[in-house]
Amino acid sequence: KIIIQDITVVTMKTAIIASLFATAAAFAPAKQGTRSFAVKAFEDELGAQPPLGFFDPLGLVADGNQKNFDRLRYVELKHGRISMLAVVGYLVTEAGIRLPGDIALDGTKFSDVPSGFAAVSAVPGAGLLQLFAFIGFLEIFVMKDITGGEFIGDFRNDFIDYGWDKLDADTKFKKRAIELNQGRAAMMGILALMVHEKLGVSLIPGSS
User: Fold this and answer.
1) Averaged pLDDT of the chain
2) Plot region of 160 (φ>0 → left; ψ -120 to 50 → alpha; else → beta)
3) pTM to 2 decimals?
4) I want to staple 41 with a disulfide (CB 3.0 to 4.6 A). Which of 11, 34, 64, 74 is the partner?
5) What is the CA radius of gyration of the chain?
6) Each residue's pLDDT tens digit, 69-80
């Protein structure tokens, strides 16, 4: 058991070191000409804000391709929204909060399911299948722009508003920027929570 734990720690440390090298490579300067072109093309886009402004160290949209930029923005928003839910779910379950009742017909209760990675093996197979099926249903039929939204990531499809259409353009832009930044922070946050869990270092006070 000690050997397995040591191997796990070494593996995680190696992964972290590799990610640091990848991050360092991402900050390598791009060619000035193509970078200047991209900055001019997207310097006023949502997310290009102080202190970094337009930030594309890998040069993914260095050619100024608007279609490619929109696709990457869609992916960024989507991952950010998922990560925000993931962070909330991680903190709630780590705090010991569970739904009442059973999660399976064999008598397994929601309270029997641990938090973190251990939950994957504790949830019955049929339960995992239902989770994946529900996520697939949302992905294919719900979380998509069908009617042609107001902006990238607008999944309202002329159905849900919550007062959005009554806001002025500046307020809308501000709220979209807040969502984007919160999503970016959440992507880093859930990654940190998972890495620290595997290293055996808790980021939550009072938890083991």
Assistant:
1) 81
2) beta
3) 0.74
4) 64
5) 21
6) 999 999 999 999
Nearest Cα to 206, choosing from 96, 88, 86?
Answer: 96
Angle at 81 between CA 75 and CA 101, to 5 degrees: 135
Q: Quote the CA–CA distance of 76 and 182 in Å, as a whole number.
A: 11
- Can you tell me the distance from the alpha carbon of 65 to that of 69, in angstroms, rounded to the nearest whole number? 6
- Measured at the CA of 141, the angle between CA 68 and CA 81, to 5 degrees, comes to 55
Q: Which residue has the tokens 């980021």?
A: 203
Please state, in angstroms and rounded to a whole number, the distance separating the CA atoms of residues 172 and 178: 10
Structure tokens at 164: 């959005």
Write out the two tokens for 134: 């529900």
Q: Which amino acid is located at 91 in the chain?
A: L
Q: What is the distance between the alpha carbons of residues 82 and 178, in angstroms, rounded to a whole number?
A: 15
Give the distance from CA 80 to its chain's centroid.
4
pLDDT in tens, 97-114: 999 999 888 888 999 999
34, pLDDT greater than 70: no
Residue 70 sits at the vertex; the CA angle it makes with 65 and 74, to the nearest 5 degrees, is 150
Q: Is the dihedral of CA 38, 44, 48, 49 positive or negative?
A: positive
